[in-house]
Amino acid sequence: MVVTLWDAFIRGFHWLLVLVVTGLWLTGGNITYIDIHHKLGLVVLALLLTRIIWGFVGSESARFRTFLRGPRAMISHIRNPLKGTWLTHNPVGGWAVVLMILALLAQAITGLFTDDAIFFRGPLAHLLSNDWVRTLTSYHKQAFDWILILLAIHILANAIYSIKGKRLMGAMVTGKIESQEPVKQPKVVHGGYGFALLAFNLIWIFWWLG
Amino acid sequence: MSMKAWTIAASISVIAITGLGITANHAAASAFTTASDAVEYRQKAFSLIRENFAYMSGMVRGERDYDADAFKQRAQALYHLSYIPFEAFSGAGENVTANSDALPVIWENWSDFEAKRDTFQAAVKELVNAAASENMREIRPKFMDTARGCQQCHQGYRAD
How far apart are CA B51 and CA A64, in angstroms? Predict the structure, then answer.
């Protein structure tokens, strides 16, 4: 049977995030593109914030309490990763999602407090002492390599699942997944609500920090 | 006073004056003789550079009204300042990284550091010329060249 796994917002969020983070990677560390980097960072902030809210009010498959499982579920998944069809992130992938969200959130937030000592000053840098701004700037410069490692693991894990016949990436495009055994369709919230929330978050974030 | 006393007094004077002369000569060669003085000199010079560049940045980036005369004055100040800090990377300031953001690799790649210094100084000179045009369309690219001139050393030669 075919199940709707990911609503339109989750899919839009995911692929927009891929685009924007790629843009941030390309524009980071180069003063020529710092203004674009700043704007893209605000887009990521709005995307992540909306995703976190969606994790409480969105579709069942997207909710944190659906996919954040304890160590027992994680161990059993690692022992037999191809067993069953998860109608959400699998128990290991769920924590990977949270880790990626937190790492990107830390990156986006520290960006607001950076100062490049040339002409760019993050919109919130004036709130902190020079020492703190210096520390957060240095974190912001160095942490991205760790994010790249996380993303590489994420892509690699998905590639392996694909090779082994689990089409997780396809589900992130179409939203649908094929289940061998009969399962109950998880509750889906219309993605339009998510996009409306995203638009609202973009507006106030750009108004405040743009 | 006896002849002998005059001779001694004269000799002492000559020695003292010569000594003063030597001391004065040393003082003229460099005002800083200790590593920490050299670092302080570098940092203060960069601080002046940063402040003057920030002022122009406000005008180029539309955060402050453009005032052609003030801009020219700042560009001129930056031009002179662009030569100041670098001399304190040699002499007493050579290989000094204590209480400083300067990285040791500066002195390992000295000729590259010098080349980047020259690029920066040339960019500032172009900025001064562009400022004379009083045309923001000509100023902006030269301002960005100067910013890149700063960044080329901040990446790799300055602690994060």
Answer: 48
In angstroms, the separation between the Cα of residue A87 and the nearest Cα of chain B is 44
Tokens 């609202």 belong to A200
pLDDT (tens digit, 9 = 90+) per residue, B30-62?
777 899 999 999 999 999 999 999 999 999 999
CB contact under 8 A, B154 and A32: no
Q: Out of A118, A119, A142, name the one closest to residue B160 (CB).
A: A142
Are A195 and A46 a contacting pair, CB within 8 Å?
no
Instruction: Select from 1.10.8.60, 1.20.120.10, 1.10.340.30, 2.102.10.10 the CATH code of B32-157.
Output: 1.20.120.10
CATH annotation of A2-209: 1.20.950.20
B57-106 pLDDT, tens per residue? 999 999 999 999 999 999 999 999 999 999 999 999 999 999 999 999 99
CB contact under 8 A, B53 and A142: no
For A35-45, the pLDDT digits (tens) are: 999 999 999 99
Going from the C-alpha of B115 to that of each of A105, B93, B121, B122, the distances in angstroms are 39, 19, 10, 10
> CB B13: neighbour CB atoms within 10 A?
10
Contacts of A137 in chain B (CB under 8 A): 160
pLDDT for residue A166: 87
Mutate to test the interface with A, among B46, B57, B151, B158 (most CBs of A within 10 A): B151
